[in-house]
Amino acid sequence: MFTKSTRSWLALSILLSLFALGSACNKNPETGPTPDNKARAVYTPTGNEGTVTGKIAYAGTPPAPNKIDTSQDPICGNRNPNLVAEDNVVKDGKLANVFVYIKDGTTADGKKFSDLGWEVSPEPATLDQNGCHYSPHVFGIQATQQLKITNSDPTQHNIHFTPQNNPEWNQSQANGAPAIVHDFKQTEVLVPVKCNQHNWMRAYIGVLRHRLFAVSKADGSFEIKGVPPGTYTVAAWHEGGAKGSEQTKQVTIAAKGSATADFSFGGATASAQEPSLKMMPALEVPMLGRP
Amino acid sequence: MHRGLHRFSLLVTCATFCLIIAGALVTSHDAGLATSDWPLSNGQFFPKMVGNLFWEHGHRLVATTVGLLTIGLAIYLYRREERRWLRRLGLVALGAVIAQGLLGGLTVKLMLPLVVSAAHATLAQLFFCTVVSLSVFTSKGWSEQRATYEEQGSLPLRYVCVAAVVTIFLQLILGATLRHSAPWDHYLPTDLVLAHVGGALAVTIILGSAAITVLRRHGSEGYLRRPATIALGLLGLQLLLGVAAYLTRLASPKDPQPLNPMIGITVAHVACGALVFATAIVLTLRSFKLLRARRAAIELVTAT
Asked: Which terminus of chain B has fewer CB atoms gathered within 10 Å of its CB, N or C?
């Protein structure tokens, strides 16, 4: 039925297509930390706990905040006419919205920090949709602690968590609807939150077993209270790129003492945001629609 | 041939093309999960169309329209069309549009898993292929008696056209997978981008060969020349749109929200891809109508 050259052409096209499809399927699955359900003895405060403080600096000149176009929903423009992106909130060289937490370490009496259990706060954390942005933009919560989500806007939103370790979750919330309560079973730093109705809305939730976390304020300062004496790795996470960027520092806290851990983001640390196609630098040209 | 039936087929084809654009707008705006329920949006048939709900619910309304039109087309075919196989093709289109609606619901309910989203985008192209074929088969040009031509050269043009359609379809699957593999604020996976570039090369070679061969061998036959010329023009446009879509998409993860240049160009790339596919289908069907195997080849087959 087919001539030899026809067969060759067909075979060539099928081979090329299969090669292309095969390349597409050769994608490694995302790997994340294994969920941790280990039983632990709950840590009881002794009164000797200390504090970790510090400041987050921004190295170099911060980019001008990107203005948000809210024209798709006039209510957002009326409620928040000067809405800007919150990925780099810098004032006087200090960076806000950096999530700082105790990542690992050893207590003064030789126990591994990861082996300590922690009581879950009975108070729910809150996430409000107000002025078509999330408040707070970055915050921490304990695994299984309740998260109360409210909508203070006269427009509808949807809350879409896109975690790696916890199940993905999406829920619409109309204006005036009652609060929605949610929780995360597994720890994760950090869970991205977005609203698909207003695609500029972003928030990040650090889910930890313990309460030893803080978020840098407008002046870049943070304070983590109630840290058992010991030597710890303090991590600071800042959004940007697909997974954000994290830095760590070692601190030692004496009984009722304090330690300082300062961090600096921006400048060189922006390399975490590089595009994946590094082999095509020639395509890095000025982009349409860029400010 | 029934003129009204052909016009109705063209209407369904145009509506389906609009639906593909509406679907591409949903993906580019990251609006697929603007509401967590389906088939209603926020519990309503006509919700307030603000924010990205405009795109997501608008897509559902256009899809509903196409579904109703396809039901109408299937009934029309059963009442007016004598060719049994064509009536059955109408039923295939109806089955495809129902399956497509269910896949659309699944994408929302399962929160856009890549396999389901890519399958939704791929079935859209298959459905488009079916309604384009229906438009060709119901046309006046298809029913008319036309002079046929013997295939020339060692490579039958008809099979090169089939290879072009198959390659374009596989490239469309790759494109759909690439688009749904990462939202606008994440970088596209390198391996998929390279695979899509490889697919573009394959389509360019095979479709380009088919169209140029048509123009060289049968340039005087307008019934073949027109789709071949359009295919070449669309192919060139599609390649340019592909480069532009890549550049704007490369920049978008650093943007605070999807910007109009990225949205407009990527949607145009999807739409042009559908048009290239449709043109290749028309060219292939027409080549099978007008071209016949070489006499020598027939004699050889008969002798063996």
From this structure: C
**Residues A198, A134 contacting (CB under 8 angstroms):** no
For residues B261 and B267, what is the distance between their CA atoms, to the nearest angstrom? 10
**DSSP annotation of A68:** P
Query: Is the pLDDT at B160 greater than 70, yes or no?
Result: yes
pTM value > 0.90: no
Contact A236, A221 (CB under 8 A): no
Provide the total of helices (H) and of strands (E) in chain A, helices listed first: 2, 19
Comparing CB atoms, the residue among B111, B199, B256 nearest residue A170 is: B111
| Vertex B270 angle, CA B267 and B271, to 5° | 85
Rounded mean pLDDT, B161-183: 96
The separation between the first and the last C-alpha atoms of chain A, rounded to the nearest angstrom, is 60
Contact check, Cβ <8 Å, A20/B174: yes
Mark yes or no for CB contact B193/A277 under 8 Å: yes
Distance CA(B184)–CA(B166), nearest Å, equals 29
Interface of B with A in 100-139 (CB under 8 A): 111
Phi, psi (degrees; rounded to nearest 5) at B164: -65, -45
pLDDT given for residue A41 in this prediction: 82
Q: What is the pLDDT of residue A49?
A: 95
Q: Can you tell me the distance from the alpha carbon of B48 to that of B270, in angstroms, rounded to the nearest whole number?
A: 28
Q: Average per-residue pLDDT in chain B?
A: 93
A6/B155 touch (CB, cutoff 8 Å), yes or no: yes
The ipTM assigned to this model is 0.83
Residues of chain A with pLDDT under 70: 1-38, 268-291
Looking at chain B, the whole-number percentage of residues with pLDDT higher than 90 is: 87
Element (H, E) at A233: strand A230-238
Q: Which of A21, A23, A73 sits opposite B50 (nearest CB)?
A: A73
Instruction: Tell me which residue in B51, B259, B260 faces A197 most closely, judged by beta carbons.
Output: B51
Residues in A closer than 8 angstroms to B174, CB to CB, are: 20-21, 24
Interface contact B264, partner A, CB < 8 A: no
Task: Kindly determine whether residue B194 and residue A23, on different chains, have CB atoms separated by under 8 Å.
Answer: yes
Contacts of B119 in chain A (CB under 8 A): none
- Residue A103 CA to residue A212 CA, distance in Å, equals 9
pLDDT (0 to 100) of residue A15:
54
For A209-254, write each residue's pLDDT tens digit.
999 999 999 999 999 999 999 999 999 999 987 788 999 999 999 9
CB contact under 8 A, A158 and B166: no
Q: Which residue has the higher pLDDT, A271 or B95?
A: B95
Q: How far is CA A228 from CA A18, A233, B41, in A?
A: 58, 13, 50
| B128 sits in which H/E element | helix B114-137
Residue B249, pLDDT score: 95
Torsion sign over Cα B274, B234, B183, B197: positive
Q: Which positions ≥6 away from B158 have C-beta within 8 Å?
A: B151, B284, B287, B288, B291
